[in-house]
Specification:
Layout: H1 2-24, E1 26-32, H2 38-52, E2 56-62, H3 68-78, E3 84-87, H4 91-98, H5 116-119, E4 133-145, H6 146-152, H7 160-173, E5 177-179, H8 186-197, H9 199-202, H10 205-213, H11 221-233, H12 246-254, E6 258-264, H13 268-274, E7 279-282, E8 294-305, H14 312-322, H15 325-334, E9 339-340, H16 351-358, E10 364-366, H17 381-394, H18 399-411
Parallel strand pairs: 1-2, 1-3, 5-6, 8-10
Antiparallel strand pairs: 3-8, 4-6, 4-7, 4-8, 4-9
Helix pairs in contact: 8-17, 11-17, 11-18, 17-18
Protein name: Probable sugar-binding periplasmic protein
Pfam family, one: SBP_bac_1
Function: Part of a binding-protein-dependent transport system for a sugar.
Length: about 425
């Protein structure tokens, strides 16, 4: 009898132990558009998490960037999406939350590591619910060929007058194309051009929020004048820039044929691997010496929880780790040019990345003006800004005409809340 009782107790104990173990064992899948990051996740990020969380395995399964939104939506609708979802900023992810496909993460451990501004790209309009962990932003500015600058006796310009004087000197010398940017891929003209220099005109968040409130219009001087400056870029972009694609622009710069590249910080890592010359960077020059400088420090990527995840508790552990200072440091150094949105200061090993992020200490940060609320209707303001930025540089539209088209399109569907 005693033997039977002991055997029963041992069997019960083993069963409970197996149940507890199975509750801890889980395999998580991360969906992302960052297919360039596969090796970084497999070799650096996932091993660090799995070492601290035995029993949880993680797979990173990215899609090609242009296909990600459609592929993710199809998987979510079919119930086959991964547990953790890489979140696009603002409206695309907000729509997923509204459809009940992303979970409220407002109370997730570590969410207090982020400011309201960092969380704003993954919140409801009232700011009460956060549905993705903020991970990284990208910063706009200009990358330059240090060897070319040294050869021509140039220093990084701080004002627009100095900027155009440098371009004139580069053009007169004739060795280099002054600036590598094309207009065939329309987004390049807007993202590297209008959204890069524009915040210095519309005063960053002040102008962006005023546009949303309806107290400013795109036909106001603060929004037209960036187009006026962009129109001046035309004579510095080299022959045939109208047919030049984004990869063409990248190649012109990394091959040493252009002196300046209007940039997003995501270029830092590939440029570092490809360019055979020293590089530096400077923020968008201010209009006049002493002016406050503004930078586009744009929330780019976050991670959320699939509402239909079969392993929600394990997924929350992974997301809480993504909200930690440890992850912030690992991620920012594994992907130079993608800057942590966490409050804690992250020490960066890459000198060019450190130069970009140092601008946060001397300039005011903002996000791209078209990304929140203002591109939810038709015509889409973001896409229309691509078209008009290219048209202005190409000389097809005047700055005023471009601004009028954009405001007319916005007025056709957007009524600011009073």
């Amino acid at each position: 009898m005693k033997k039977r009782l002991l055997a029963a107790l041992l069997l019960g104990s083993a069963f409970l132990g197996a149940t507890a173990a199975s509750a801890e064992d889980a395999t998580l899948t991360i969906e992302s558009w960052r297919n360039d990051d596969l090796a970084i996740w497999q070799e650096k990020l996932i091993p660090a998490f799995e070492k601290a969380n035995p029993g949880i395995k993680v797979n990173f399964t990215p899609s090609a960037p242009p296909e990600y939104n459609a592929a993710l939506n199809a998987k979510l609708d079919a119930g086959t999406a991964g547990d953790v979802i890489a979140c696009r900023p603002f409206d695309a992810s907000l729509e997923l939350y509204k459809k009940g496909q992303l979970t409220d993460l407002s109370g997730l451990a570590g969410m207090d590591n982020f400011t309201d501004a960092a969380k704003s790209a993954w919140q409801t309009d009232d700011g009460k619910t956060t549905f993705c962990v903020p991970v990284a932003s990208v910063i706009h500015g200009f990358i330059y060929n240090k060897d070319a600058f040294d050869k021509l006796g140039l220093k990084p310009p701080q004002t627009e007058e100095e900027f155009f004087a440098a371009l004139d000197k580069i053009k007169a010398d004739g060795t280099y194309i002054p600036m590598a940017m094309g207009t065939k891929d329309l987004w390049e003209a807007a993202t590297m051009g209008y959204q890069n220099i524009g915040p210095n005109y519309w005063k960053g968040e002040d102008g962006r929020l005023a546009l949303i409130k309806g107290t400013q219009k795109l036909t106001d001087a603060d929004w037209v004048e960036p187009f006026v400056t962009l129109a001046k870029w035309k004579s510095y972009l080299g022959d045939g820039f109208e047919a030049q694609t984004y990869p063409d622009s990248q190649n012109l710069f990394t091959l040493g044929r252009a002196a300046i590249y209007p940039a997003g910080s995501w270029e830092i890592s590939p440029f570092g691997a490809q360019a055979q010359f020293k590089m530096g960077a400077f923020p968008p020059p201010v209009r006049n010496a002493g002016d406050t400088c503004y930078i586009s420090d744009h929330n780019d990527i976050g991670f959320g929880l699939n509402a239909k995840s079969k392993n929600p508790e394990a997924a929350k552990k992974l997301l809480a780790w993504m909200a930690s200072p440890e992850f912030a440091t690992l991620y920012a150094n594994a992907l130079p040019g993608f800057f942590s949105l966490a409050k804690n200061e992250v020490k960066l090993d890459n000198a060019l990345a450190q130069e970009f992020v140092s601008w946060r200490n001397k300039c005011k940060s903002t996000i791209r003006s078209t990304y929140k609320i203002l591109s939810r209707g038709t015509p889409n303001l973001e896409n229309e800004t691509w078209v008009e930025s290219a048209n202005v540089i190409n000389g097809v539209d005047t700055p005023q005409a471009a601004a009028e088209k954009l405001q007319k399109g916005l007025d056709s569907w957007y009524k600011p809340a009073k």
